[in-house]
Amino acid sequence: MVRSEKKARRLVVDQEIFFWTVGHNHRALGNGRYEDCRELLDIRPSGTSGRLRIVFQEGPGRLVPDGYTPSGTVGTEIGKTLNLHEPGTVRALLTAATARDWRPGSAGIVEVDGWQLFDEVELQRRRPPEPAPHAWSLEEAAEEEAARAATALSPAERHRHLLLAAQANHRCGRTDEARQQCESVLREHSTPEQATEARHLLRMLDAADGPL
Questions:
Q1: Does the pTM exceed 0.70?
Q2: How far apart are CA 205 and CA 212, in angstroms?
Q3: Which residues span the domain enclosing 186?
Q4: How many domains are there within the chain?
Q5: What is the pLDDT of residues 26-38, one digit of tens each?
Q6: What are phi and psi of 71, to 5 degrees?
Protein backbone atom coordinates (compact mmCIF):
# COMPACT_ATOMS: atom_id res chain seq x y z
CA MET A 1 0.00 0.00 0.00
CA VAL A 2 1.37 3.42 -0.99
CA ARG A 3 0.32 6.80 0.42
CA SER A 4 1.46 10.16 -0.98
CA GLU A 5 1.34 13.55 0.73
CA LYS A 6 -0.56 16.19 -1.26
CA LYS A 7 0.78 17.64 -4.50
CA ALA A 8 4.42 17.98 -5.47
CA ARG A 9 6.23 20.97 -4.01
CA ARG A 10 8.81 23.10 -5.80
CA LEU A 11 12.44 23.52 -4.80
CA VAL A 12 15.15 25.57 -6.53
CA VAL A 13 18.77 24.53 -6.08
CA ASP A 14 21.56 26.31 -7.98
CA GLN A 15 18.96 27.71 -10.41
CA GLU A 16 17.68 24.20 -11.17
CA ILE A 17 14.02 23.41 -10.42
CA PHE A 18 12.96 20.21 -8.66
CA PHE A 19 9.59 18.89 -7.52
CA TRP A 20 9.29 16.72 -4.40
CA THR A 21 6.73 14.67 -2.51
CA VAL A 22 6.71 12.65 0.69
CA GLY A 23 5.02 9.25 0.68
CA HIS A 24 4.77 6.03 2.65
CA ASN A 25 4.28 2.40 1.82
CA HIS A 26 3.93 -0.83 3.76
CA ARG A 27 2.59 -4.35 3.50
CA ALA A 28 -0.84 -4.94 5.03
CA LEU A 29 -1.21 -8.06 7.16
CA GLY A 30 -4.91 -7.63 7.91
CA ASN A 31 -6.73 -6.68 11.11
CA GLY A 32 -5.14 -3.25 10.98
CA ARG A 33 -1.60 -4.63 11.16
CA TYR A 34 1.27 -3.66 8.86
CA GLU A 35 4.93 -4.42 8.33
CA ASP A 36 7.85 -3.29 6.15
CA CYS A 37 6.98 0.40 6.59
CA ARG A 38 9.01 2.75 4.39
CA GLU A 39 8.96 6.55 4.27
CA LEU A 40 9.71 7.81 0.77
CA LEU A 41 11.05 11.13 -0.47
CA ASP A 42 10.70 11.47 -4.25
CA ILE A 43 12.62 14.29 -5.97
CA ARG A 44 12.11 14.91 -9.69
CA PRO A 45 14.04 17.44 -11.78
CA SER A 46 11.74 19.69 -13.79
CA GLY A 47 11.26 18.56 -17.39
CA THR A 48 12.39 14.98 -16.84
CA SER A 49 10.65 11.69 -16.09
CA GLY A 50 13.49 10.30 -13.98
CA ARG A 51 13.51 10.78 -10.23
CA LEU A 52 15.49 10.21 -7.09
CA ARG A 53 13.73 8.18 -4.40
CA ILE A 54 15.28 8.38 -0.94
CA VAL A 55 13.99 5.46 1.14
CA PHE A 56 13.88 5.19 4.92
CA GLN A 57 13.09 1.55 5.76
CA GLU A 58 11.93 0.61 9.24
CA GLY A 59 14.25 -1.59 11.28
CA PRO A 60 15.82 -1.99 14.71
CA GLY A 61 16.63 1.44 16.10
CA ARG A 62 15.16 3.14 13.03
CA LEU A 63 12.05 5.26 13.40
CA VAL A 64 9.57 5.77 10.55
CA PRO A 65 5.90 6.84 10.69
CA ASP A 66 3.72 4.00 11.95
CA GLY A 67 0.33 5.64 12.53
CA TYR A 68 1.49 7.35 15.72
CA THR A 69 4.62 9.19 14.54
CA PRO A 70 3.93 12.30 12.39
CA SER A 71 4.20 11.92 8.62
CA GLY A 72 7.69 12.59 7.29
CA THR A 73 9.46 12.01 10.62
CA VAL A 74 12.41 9.61 10.42
CA GLY A 75 15.11 9.07 13.00
CA THR A 76 17.40 6.78 14.92
CA GLU A 77 16.62 7.87 18.48
CA ILE A 78 14.62 10.40 20.47
CA GLY A 79 15.79 13.88 19.51
CA LYS A 80 17.76 12.66 16.51
CA THR A 81 15.28 12.94 13.66
CA LEU A 82 14.67 14.55 10.29
CA ASN A 83 11.44 16.07 9.06
CA LEU A 84 11.03 15.25 5.36
CA HIS A 85 8.41 18.00 5.01
CA GLU A 86 11.02 20.71 5.64
CA PRO A 87 12.41 22.15 2.39
CA GLY A 88 15.80 22.59 4.06
CA THR A 89 15.92 18.87 4.85
CA VAL A 90 14.98 17.99 1.27
CA ARG A 91 17.69 20.31 -0.04
CA ALA A 92 20.30 18.74 2.26
CA LEU A 93 19.31 15.17 1.29
CA LEU A 94 19.39 16.09 -2.41
CA THR A 95 22.85 17.62 -2.01
CA ALA A 96 24.11 14.55 -0.13
CA ALA A 97 22.70 12.16 -2.75
CA THR A 98 24.23 14.21 -5.58
CA ALA A 99 27.60 14.05 -3.84
CA ARG A 100 27.23 10.25 -4.01
CA ASP A 101 26.97 10.31 -7.81
CA TRP A 102 23.21 10.65 -8.40
CA ARG A 103 22.67 12.98 -11.36
CA PRO A 104 19.45 14.86 -12.22
CA GLY A 105 19.53 13.45 -15.75
CA SER A 106 19.40 9.82 -14.57
CA ALA A 107 16.60 7.81 -16.22
CA GLY A 108 13.90 5.96 -14.30
CA ILE A 109 13.59 5.81 -10.52
CA VAL A 110 16.92 5.66 -8.70
CA GLU A 111 16.49 4.46 -5.10
CA VAL A 112 18.96 5.56 -2.43
CA ASP A 113 19.08 4.25 1.15
CA GLY A 114 18.19 7.29 3.23
CA TRP A 115 19.92 5.89 6.30
CA GLN A 116 23.26 6.18 4.50
CA LEU A 117 22.63 9.93 4.24
CA PHE A 118 20.96 10.37 7.63
CA ASP A 119 23.88 11.08 9.99
CA GLU A 120 25.46 13.64 7.67
CA VAL A 121 22.20 15.50 7.05
CA GLU A 122 20.94 15.27 10.64
CA LEU A 123 24.18 16.77 11.93
CA GLN A 124 23.94 19.56 9.37
CA ARG A 125 20.30 20.30 10.25
CA ARG A 126 20.67 20.09 14.04
CA ARG A 127 20.23 23.50 15.65
CA PRO A 128 18.04 25.32 18.20
CA PRO A 129 14.54 26.21 16.91
CA GLU A 130 14.76 29.56 15.10
CA PRO A 131 13.50 31.14 11.87
CA ALA A 132 14.70 29.50 8.69
CA PRO A 133 17.55 31.80 7.58
CA HIS A 134 18.84 29.31 5.02
CA ALA A 135 15.57 29.26 3.06
CA TRP A 136 15.96 30.81 -0.38
CA SER A 137 12.45 32.28 -0.62
CA LEU A 138 9.61 33.46 1.59
CA GLU A 139 7.46 30.58 0.34
CA GLU A 140 10.16 28.10 1.36
CA ALA A 141 10.53 29.78 4.77
CA ALA A 142 6.77 29.52 5.34
CA GLU A 143 6.73 25.83 4.45
CA GLU A 144 9.73 25.17 6.69
CA GLU A 145 8.15 26.85 9.71
CA ALA A 146 4.81 25.09 9.13
CA ALA A 147 6.62 21.75 9.01
CA ARG A 148 8.41 22.55 12.28
CA ALA A 149 5.08 23.48 13.87
CA ALA A 150 3.65 20.08 12.93
CA THR A 151 6.36 18.24 14.91
CA ALA A 152 6.94 20.71 17.75
CA LEU A 153 7.31 19.18 21.20
CA SER A 154 5.32 21.83 23.07
CA PRO A 155 2.33 24.11 22.35
CA ALA A 156 4.46 27.24 22.80
CA GLU A 157 7.02 25.99 20.28
CA ARG A 158 4.26 24.99 17.85
CA HIS A 159 2.62 28.40 18.06
CA ARG A 160 5.96 30.16 17.62
CA HIS A 161 6.56 28.34 14.35
CA LEU A 162 2.97 28.92 13.20
CA LEU A 163 3.40 32.66 13.73
CA LEU A 164 6.71 32.65 11.84
CA ALA A 165 5.00 30.76 9.01
CA ALA A 166 2.11 33.25 9.03
CA GLN A 167 4.48 36.20 8.83
CA ALA A 168 6.31 34.68 5.85
CA ASN A 169 3.03 33.78 4.12
CA HIS A 170 1.74 37.35 4.65
CA ARG A 171 4.90 38.86 3.19
CA CYS A 172 4.68 36.74 0.04
CA GLY A 173 0.96 37.34 -0.44
CA ARG A 174 -0.41 34.00 0.73
CA THR A 175 -3.00 35.62 2.97
CA ASP A 176 -5.35 32.65 3.29
CA GLU A 177 -2.57 30.46 4.69
CA ALA A 178 -1.42 33.25 7.02
CA ARG A 179 -4.96 33.75 8.32
CA GLN A 180 -5.45 30.02 8.97
CA GLN A 181 -2.20 29.83 10.92
CA CYS A 182 -3.09 32.85 13.07
CA GLU A 183 -6.53 31.42 13.76
CA SER A 184 -4.94 28.12 14.81
CA VAL A 185 -2.76 29.95 17.33
CA LEU A 186 -5.83 31.66 18.83
CA ARG A 187 -7.93 28.51 18.81
CA GLU A 188 -5.28 26.39 20.56
CA HIS A 189 -5.00 28.49 23.75
CA SER A 190 -1.61 30.05 23.10
CA THR A 191 0.28 32.27 25.54
CA PRO A 192 -1.05 35.83 25.95
CA GLU A 193 1.94 37.22 24.04
CA GLN A 194 1.45 34.82 21.13
CA ALA A 195 -2.31 35.50 21.07
CA THR A 196 -1.61 39.24 20.92
CA GLU A 197 0.82 38.72 18.03
CA ALA A 198 -1.72 36.56 16.18
CA ARG A 199 -4.47 39.18 16.59
CA HIS A 200 -2.11 41.92 15.42
CA LEU A 201 -1.22 39.97 12.30
CA LEU A 202 -4.91 39.25 11.61
CA ARG A 203 -5.63 43.00 11.79
CA MET A 204 -2.82 43.59 9.29
CA LEU A 205 -4.30 40.95 7.00
CA ASP A 206 -7.72 42.57 7.25
CA ALA A 207 -6.32 45.99 6.43
CA ALA A 208 -3.98 45.01 3.62
CA ASP A 209 -4.92 44.55 0.01
CA GLY A 210 -1.78 42.51 -0.73
CA PRO A 211 1.61 41.49 0.63
CA LEU A 212 3.74 43.77 2.77
A1: no
A2: 10
A3: 131-212
A4: 2
A5: 666 666 666 778 9
A6: -55, 140
